[in-house]
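On clarity, I found the account of how folds are encoded harder to follow than it need be. Since the whole study asks how a given chain folds, the encoding of that fold should be made plain. The format is easy to grasp once an entry is in front of the reader. For illustration, here is how one protein appears when written out as sequence plus structure tokens.
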Amino acid sequence: MNIYGVTGWKNSGKTTLVERLVQELVERGLRVSTLKHAHHSSDVDHKGRDSFRHRAAGAYEVLLATPARWALMHELRGAEEPPLEELLAKLAPVDLVLIEGYKSSNHPKIETFRHEAGHELMAPHNPTIRAVASDMAQLDTQVPLFDLNDIKGLANFILSDGTLDV
């Protein structure tokens, strides 16, 4: 499975970049899925819904099916968070999976960097970062530098990276 990541510090534009890359790549005819990692506990379900009540009662998994979509919620119930590879194996085959987060994983990534976020650039210390997308025109980096809004250029870069067979 072809995977490419978008990583960066909080408030650096990761989610917006992933969203815009998905739109661009889908317009080019690719089937794209995403995997988002969050460091905090997050719930896609809401208190009072039947599916929430099933989980609260102790269900290990709850599959919610509607005419428009289905969602599988799996409760870890104290178990370790599964590794990225195990989660990727749960996805249906597509042309490309864009991964948001997972800074330390081994897949190729684009780093989002905003000066105002107040963090140090990761690229010089992370060999899996292949390019930086930034709001700054000049950065001290050995990898290609793109404007955060150059979605076509970033999509071209991802698709031309030798790690993919798209």
Observations:
- The mean pLDDT is 91.
- The CA atoms of residues 65 and 71 lie 7 Å apart.
- The chain has one domain: 3-40+81-160.
- Residues 3-40+81-160 form a domain with the Rossmann fold fold (CATH 3.40.50.300).
